[in-house]
Model the fold of this input.
Amino acid sequence: MRSFKHINARTVGEASALLKKYKGKAMLNAGGTELLSTLKGEYLLNYPEAVINIKTLPGLDYIKEERGMLKIGALTKLSDIARSSLLRESCRALVDATCSVATPQIRNAATIGGNLCQDVRCWYYRYPDHIGGRILCLRKGGKICNALTGDHRYHSIFGAASVAVYPCSSNCPAHTDIPSFLNRMSNGNLMEAARVLLDFNPMPAITGRVCPIFCEPECYRSEFDEPVAIRCVERSLGDRILERMNEFFTPPKAKSGRNIAIIGSGPAGLTAAYTLRRSGNRITVFEKCREAGGMLLYSIPPYRLPKDVVGKQVQALKGMGIKFKVGVNVGKDITIVELMSRFDAVFLATGAWKERPLGIKGEKIGLSGLEFLNRVNSGSRDLPGKRVAVIGGGNVAMDVARTLLRLGGEPVVIYRRTQAEMPAFRDEVEKAKEEGIEFEFLTLPTEVSEAYGKITLKCVRMRLGSPDASGRPKPIPIKGSDFTSPFDAIIKAVGEEPDTSLLPATFRKKAQKASASAHWLGKNLFAGGDFVSGPSTVVQAVASGREAADLIERSLKGRQPPAQAGGIEPTVTSASLETTPRVRIPESPVSERIKGIEVEDTLGLGLSEIETEASRCFNCGCIAVSSSDIGIVLTALDAKIVTTKRTVDAQSFFTASATRSTLLDPDEVVKEIQIPKPRNGAQQKYLKYSLRTPIDFAIVSVASVITVEKGVCVDARIALGAVAPGPVRAKAAEEAIIGRPVDEHRAAEAAEQAMAGAQPLSMNAYKVEIAKALVKRAIMGSSIN
Amino acid sequence: MKGIKSRKIRLVVNGHIHELEVGGRPGQIKPSHTLAHTLRETLGLTGTKVSCDHGACGCCTVLMDNQAVLSCMTLTVECDGKKITTIEGLKDPKTEGLDPLQQAFIDHTAFQCGFCTPGILMSAKALLYENPLPTEEDVKEALSGNFCRCISHYQVVRAVMSASEEVR
Done:
């Protein structure tokens, strides 16, 4: 064991104060076995700085009866509970459970409080660090759960406890509660799934098509088979939402009386408009172009994002009562300062449309990539020439090249680094290559010239040097490698930046220094989206729009705690563990794709298909179970646990959270256990099925307190252990017998009902049968032996 | 917490008083030392064995105030003022003769390799302190935390029963 500071606490208050002082870096010793195996195994991420011994605290070692209540001090030894004549007479199930804990030697040292506070016994979680390294499992904030695929006899058959950070959600720029909407979708609950999704993102039909997918690479499922096709589910769900837009996009019930102007109708502007409208504000969106949609409409080509989807999205927002003023060029037709005086708040989200220059001779001969896309998206099908050089390696370059190809052109992408360094989405590059688009990597244009209608591009070959400020290898020209190529047209797409010229000078500096995704520029002016961040993605703009809406709300209403992101965290989630193939996302074949820009290259799926795919979500919970025998029996006994801060019932004490075994705060200490004295004649059982008695933990355990009078059950409490993250009340089984005569048939029926809804993992379905047998025996009053 | 520099603990091991300083220097007791470690490495009482070192096998069982505990799962710094009995302390202090329980183990060849035997003897001794006339079930229960890979359990139960019968 590595060293630590050892402190003997003298009072409960001191123990609690020390826990607070060490901020999670101290552990209590209330017995020893759990603590020392934790320290010896070093399986936790943090080794404690201090161990606080509380075994010698005075006044917490007692067993007494007070007005029908059995009270046990938290530091009462298990062996004393087993020996107590008071408990042997009145609380047999507790004595039996106590005697089933570990070994006689351990029961001589262990305390009831310590037993309740023990951590889960998942052997992957507790894998010792000195044998090949600890396992960074979900419970520790990692990405893997070996129990899902390995042996899981000591694991749940009733779902998992949710983790604090979901890998998918935490990597989504909009922090979409992905497990939550997938969970609802997998249950066929489209409405609920849509509601969760819309709390985070008003345009899932759009992000479901063009999001570069931040979430799926993080999906734990890929450690098992393949990631859940999250974007595909989102897209189909998004299409359903737009089909039924009147149900989801409704005017707000409450009115704030405030007017907010939004400049720019791209994803950031639309999201801010949606979010601020939902909270009752009057919204006017100003758009320079003829139609609302911004880059969704004028930059992204239709084969990636059909224009009718954008149209429906805008229409949906109009349905909420958002006003759109199109063809208004803010800065020319009306100044920002004027808008600021007419509206309570102004949100500037005009994107990043200003193209960066190449900085080479003859540059003016080249066309602008964004302008070309804008023209095509506005209906033009003219090719600037047959053979076109597309200069750049970003998404605009890919859009331009693939659009050219679809219009019958022969694009050649010229990029100064290699494919690995391209800023474009990998998927876009792959598709471009698939479609046969030519790439000239490690090539830098140095001069453009035009003679007799033919354009000549002079280039130099590059090699990669050491990393530059962007972290990518710096391209270095190779001397003497200059060459020229003839082209019919040149299109430049080497990056875009926001045009800050429409801002009054006083705000301009601040706009450029922005570090957050949305920003307060001064007075009642806010900015967000690509205007602040530079070219990014739709979902990042959505996130920025939401953040801006939040900032604006807070500035208008005064200081308030930040609004909770809407979603509903699942508390206990299901875990599906069968290997199931990821849904095949239909794609148009290359030969179809290149026929025209209207052919969408990725297609959607039907409802039943996305339901199946959604059910592949692991929900990334921890399936380890509480191993406290005492906790199970206390649940059946309807006991209360008294801590330094509160009194809670035994079942609630074990919160189903993947990061904590109990609901105790870091500085909270258990003081007493209170058990209402079971009525005379109540039949108490604690049945534990384990492999090697007594040292093994329960595979399944059942605790029951059942009163039968004249052959009829008058009261029953049954709790199951080792089948879920915490103790489980078998309420269905209780209801099946209360008020009825108890016979074998009824007991078997109750046992069936106790296990209804069980979701065994791939290798622990036998636990369901064991649990049924134990419940039946508990009801029939027979013992396990 | 007072006077960390001169923090001392006092153990009575097999009737002998040991005053041990807590600290990081050689010969001192580190807070991370287990009782098994202190007995074997500091006090040289190597009769107590350490097998699994995780509280599962029972080999390291010693008596603390006449109750069986696992010395591998006990921090020495938390044993201040305790009376510890190890296998070395079973002998009669005057005659240095074997404890009747030890003799019964020999008489019944209640061991093979013998590694687990000190732990089993200490668990059995604790049982007989508390319950001088145990039933066979009592013996099995009391020894349920002691593992033997040589399967000496049958002879062990007989030895413990016979030792208790001598008392009868």
Q: What stands out?
A: The first helix of chain A runs from residue 12 to 21. The domain at 355-495 of chain A is CATH 3.50.50.60 (FAD/NAD(P)-binding domain).
